[in-house]
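Subgroup meeting minutes
Present: P.N., E.W., G.H.
Scribe: E.W.

1. P.N. recapped why we're keeping a running log of single-chain structure predictions: easier to compare across weeks, and new members can see raw inputs and outputs side by side.
2. G.H. added today's entry (95 aa).
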Amino acid sequence: MNERFAASTLKNPLMPDEVIFNEKGVTFKARKVFSSSEQFVFYNDIAGVEIDSGMFFSTIRIKARAREHEIIIENFTKSDARKVKELILERAFQQ
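Output recorded in log:
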C-alpha cells in the first residue's frame, strides 16, 4: 500500500519533490535550495487534484479542505503525475 513517487532529477538533481502514500493519507515533500516543507493530508480531506503539464514535466496541485493554500509539487513526469492523481482520487473516494 505504501508507494513513493519522486520528481525528475533533471531540474533539481539534489532535492526532488516527493509524494508518499500510506494507508491513511499522503505526504507531500516540496524541497527548495534553502527550505523545504512536508505536509500530510488525509485522503478524505482532499478536495481536488490538478495537473499542469508542460512540454516535459508536470506540476501537481492538491486542494485540501480547511487549508487556505493549495499544495504544489513540481517536476514530475507526465505519467507519474497522472498516476499520483489517479491514486489520490481512488483512495479519497474509497474512504
